[in-house]
């Protein structure tokens, strides 16, 4: 069974222009899937539809066998504990320590009072340290986040997503603010997470070479439509031109 099924998804912000047009795909557990495409193609909007930060106009999103299309408050809260987010600008609380930021990933499981009082169990704290260890930054656990490099902060962002125990992690341009070495480290960790923890990652990327190197599969959007869906080997120069330079919007079948 697929972890995620997207069926005939359409989304507009202003009810005139469709930002996403009849999107259809399925994703299996444990895959690292990159979403590429020119600026404004709809990559971020697609991720926001999947975790329902924005509503869509029509179509269906089936996650872990359940149709999430009509989810309301409580179901959305549960959905968002199953789906971690990693952001371009990390979205950490700079004045808090690394370990506190990681534990924030557990807030979706807490009551408001528990959250306000930062009440975390010993097991949660042990898990947070263990994740920081896995991501190679445990020695920074008690530093303020704003004392870390960009690459280290992004690893904190990944640990915060992982401590949710997600089935899926959505990464919106996770390496856009990083240098090539730090980018490599982040992509290697994301690959490791999919392989060792069987967590699916969908990663929006502008760097096609990175998408080619790390992804099990690449989906390309242009003007809101899927114009390529296949492996890095199938993404030929000609198809790349189609993704970034084309005028037509027909799907390249592979
Ligand atoms: N909140 C919003 N309200 C109105 N229009 C929006 C909103 N968010 C995005 N858009 C529009 O939707 C289209 C797709 O934007 P989106 O950010 O999803 O593309 P993207 O492929 O992620 O772009 P980039 O690579 O530049 O981040 C763009 O035309 C954008 O202007």
From TrEMBL:
<dbReference type="GO" id="GO:0005524">
    <property type="term" value="F:ATP binding"/>
</dbReference>
<feature type="domain" description="ABC transporter">
    <location>
        <begin position="4"/>
        <end position="248"/>
    </location>
</feature>
<dbReference type="InterPro" id="IPR017871">
    <property type="entry name" value="ABC_transporter-like_CS"/>
</dbReference>
<dbReference type="InterPro" id="IPR012693">
    <property type="entry name" value="ABC_transpr_PhnC"/>
</dbReference>
<dbReference type="GO" id="GO:0015416">
    <property type="term" value="F:ABC-type phosphonate transporter activity"/>
</dbReference>
<keyword id="KW-1278">Translocase</keyword>
<keyword id="KW-1003">Cell membrane</keyword>
<dbReference type="Pfam" id="PF00005">
    <property type="entry name" value="ABC_tran"/>
</dbReference>
<keyword id="KW-0547">Nucleotide-binding</keyword>
<keyword id="KW-0472">Membrane</keyword>
<dbReference type="InterPro" id="IPR003593">
    <property type="entry name" value="AAA+_ATPase"/>
</dbReference>
<protein>
    <submittedName>
        <fullName>Phosphonate transport system ATP-binding protein</fullName>
    </submittedName>
</protein>
<dbReference type="InterPro" id="IPR003439">
    <property type="entry name" value="ABC_transporter-like_ATP-bd"/>
</dbReference>
<dbReference type="InterPro" id="IPR050086">
    <property type="entry name" value="MetN_ABC_transporter-like"/>
</dbReference>
<keyword id="KW-0918">Phosphonate transport</keyword>
<keyword id="KW-0813">Transport</keyword>
<dbReference type="InterPro" id="IPR027417">
    <property type="entry name" value="P-loop_NTPase"/>
</dbReference>
<keyword id="KW-0067">ATP-binding</keyword>
<dbReference type="GO" id="GO:0016020">
    <property type="term" value="C:membrane"/>
</dbReference>
<dbReference type="GO" id="GO:0016887">
    <property type="term" value="F:ATP hydrolysis activity"/>
</dbReference>
């Amino acid at each position: 069974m697929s972890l995620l099924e997207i069926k005939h998804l359409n989304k507009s912000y202003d009810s005139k222009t469709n930002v996403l047009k009849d999107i259809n795909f399925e994703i299996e557990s444990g895959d690292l899937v990159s979403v590429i495409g020119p600026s404004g193609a709809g990559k971020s909007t697609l991720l926001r539809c999947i975790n329902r930060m924005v509503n869509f106009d029509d179509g269906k999103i089936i996650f872990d066998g359940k149709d999430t299309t009509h989810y309301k408050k409580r179901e959305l809260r549960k959905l968002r504990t199953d789906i971690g987010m990693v952001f371009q600008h990390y979205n950490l609380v700079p004045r808090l320590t690394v370990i506190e930021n990681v534990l924030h990933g557990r807030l979706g499981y807490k009551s408001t009072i528990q959250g306000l009082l930062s009440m975390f169990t010993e097991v949660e704290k042990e898990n947070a340290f263990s994740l920081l260890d896995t991501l190679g930054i445990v020695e920074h656990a008690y530093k303020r986040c704003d004392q870390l490099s960009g690459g280290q902060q992004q690893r904190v962002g990944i640990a915060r997503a992982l401590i949710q125990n997600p089935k899926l992690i959505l990464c919106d341009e996770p390496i856009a603010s990083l240098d090539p070495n730090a980018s490599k480290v982040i992509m290697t960790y994301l690959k490791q997470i999919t392989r060792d923890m069987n967590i699916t990652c969908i990663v929006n990327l502008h760097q096609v070479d990175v998408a080619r190197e790390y992804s099990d599969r690449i989906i390309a959007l242009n003007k809101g439509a899927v114009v390529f869906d296949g492996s890095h080997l199938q993404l030929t120069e000609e198809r790349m031109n189609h993704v970034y330079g084309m005028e037509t919007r027909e799907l390249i079948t592979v």
